[in-house]
Amino acid sequence: MRIVRKQEGLAVVVIPMLPLLVSRQWGWTEAWIYAAICILGFVISRVLAGRKNPGLLAERARFGQQSDTKSWDRKMTLLLALGGLIIHLVPGLDKLKGWSAGFSIPWVVAGFFLVVTGYFLGSYALVANRYFSGMVRIQNDRDHRVVSSGPYRFVRHPGYLGAAITYAGIPLFLNSLWTLIPVVITIGILVIRTLLEDRTLQNELPGYDEYARHTRYRLIPGVW
After folding, report:
1. Residue 182 lies in domain
2. DSSP of 160-216
């Protein structure tokens, strides 16, 4: 079973390692732990998703190649990719240059739990949803239907919520106050993408309107 394309596999390894590669602080324990969470989380989630929904990995491997992808989402995807890259670059630069004093141990521990929680939720959403594509499109070629099980019982976009939680934990866990800036911007872009995707699904996916009436919140339970 092929889990991932070569290009994506390279990114999965290199991007989580950027704080270490940029700072060259090879004794940075939190950065090693963070990289391990990212890489192992990715591999395990793809193995589980591939076993449950074999067609999903093929769909995700076609990232950017689908002709029916929404044009606005191509821009959103690029912005999110850039945001994710910067979020991983800044902690390394911060560590190298000593830009910020960092956070106290309780905040670092909180950051660790946010990162783990975010990765778990995002992975749970991936495994539960056989239509969890990397791009926003109505997958008529895959008999696209509404998914309302697993974490989708509580919010309509748990994958995005997981990503936002992980992003929020990175500055704390990697002790970088300056990383909060790209994190806030990237989460803002993620919220806009959530809104646009939700509108697309309500307008074009049969049954999504009814699902939205029962599962009221898009991203944050009890808030939005």
Report:
1. 6-214
2. HHHHHHHHHHHHHHTT-GGGHHHHHHHHHHHHHHHHHHHHHHHHHSTTHHHHHHHS-
